[in-house]
Amino acid sequence: MSTAEAPRTVTASPVLELQLDCRSDAVGPARHLAGTYMARLEPSVERDTREAVILVVSELVTNAVRHAGGKSCTLRLLADPASIVVSVSDASPVLPRPRTPDVTGDGGGFGWSMVCRIATTVEVSRGSQGKTVTATIPRQEWRTGPGQDAAAAPRPASTAVRRAGHPG
């Protein structure tokens, strides 16, 4: 079935919400649950999209564990026929910021820039309970034409930071 013929409905539950302990051992189960969630969606999620969503889930949950300092964080996945939206909420009001990656492997710095490159939009909203980082990943292979390398394709990403209750 071509993308143009794909049904415009999502037959599995379009929302998954999960509260996680903000510990490093929460990342693996979050990735697994995201994969299971996407496996149940119709139309089916293409492999590249599935891998991109799992990577974004991994990076956002890892950032919440490393930087938020709270006891828990919330992972939310929302699917529609055009995209999968990944949101991670935590108790910290501190906004993510790009850092120079530590190529020695000790300090990180790669995750936020990867999320911003993979997603078509990334939004950070702050409220009285902390912040929510939301990344939207398209379901279709919009990135490339036939025979082109997806990694080399330009990305139409945008990033917005909003405070809860205030328009971007």
From TrEMBL:
Keywords from the named record: ATP-binding, Kinase, Nucleotide-binding, Serine/threonine-protein kinase, Transferase
Entry annotated with the keyword Lyase: no
Coiled coil: none
Pfam families cross-referenced by the UniProt entry: HATPase_c_2
Molecular functions (GO terms): ATP binding; protein serine/threonine kinase activity
Region annotation Disordered: where it falls in the sequence: 127-168
Domain of life of the native organism: Bacteria
Bias (Low complexity): 150-162
Residues in Histidine kinase/HSP90-like ATPase domain copies: 25-136
Annotated Polar residues bias: 127-137
PANTHER family: ANTI-SIGMA-F FACTOR RSBW (PTHR35526:SF3), ANTI-SIGMA-F FACTOR RSBW-RELATED (PTHR35526)
Name of the molecule in the record: ATP-binding protein
Organism name: Streptomyces auratus AGR0001
